């Protein structure tokens, strides 16, 4: 006959926070062990892809973890993926280049006007 198991906590519903697994004690008894929720994998804020090099953990665990587990040594490290950072840098560079081109064209137009 199978041994019956009772909850160790007051919560009696099968919710995400009440997950448990069955474990056998050294005395041969079966008991419930409550499992913690898995940490969510951090995602890029732009493209929503999973960030590499960052430890998945629950918020309370993240507080006690050192900085090297939570970030990557790069601009926007731990917030944006490498591909998105690259596109941001390229976009900023191209915008600056466009501003310079506009300035040069204005100067050329002014010079041409002055000649005539």
Keywords:
116 residues, mainly alpha, two-stranded antiparallel sheet, 3 helices, 38% helix
Unreliable residue runs: none
Number of contiguous helices: 3
Into which percent range does the helicity of residues fall?
25-40%
Radius of gyration: 29 Å
Mean pLDDT across the residues is 94
Percent strand equals: 5-15%
Spatially, the strands of the biggest sheet line up as 1-2
Describe this entry's structure for a reader:
Helix content is 38%, strand content 9%. β1 and β2 form a beta hairpin. The protein has helices spanning 59-64, 67-70, 82-115, and strands at 20-24, 30-34. The protein is rod-shaped. The protein is mainly α and 116 residues long. It has a two-stranded antiparallel sheet with strand order 1-2. The longest helix has 34 residues, at 82-115. The mean pLDDT is 94. The chain has 3 helices and 2 strands.
């Amino acid at each position: 006959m199978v041994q019956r198991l009772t909850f160790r906590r007051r919560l009696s519903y099968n919710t995400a926070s009440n997950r448990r697994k069955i474990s056998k004690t050294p005395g041969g008894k079966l008991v419930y062990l409550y499992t913690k929720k898995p940490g969510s994998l951090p995602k890029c804020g732009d493209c929503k892809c999973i960030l590499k090099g960052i430890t998945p953990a629950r918020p309370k665990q993240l507080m006690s973890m050192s900085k090297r587990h939570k970030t990557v040594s790069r601009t926007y490290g731990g917030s944006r993926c490498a591909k998105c950072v690259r596109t941001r840098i390229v976009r900023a560079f191209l915008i600056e280049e466009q501003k310079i081109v506009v300035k040069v064209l204005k100067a050329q137009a002014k010079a041409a006007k002055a000649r005539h």
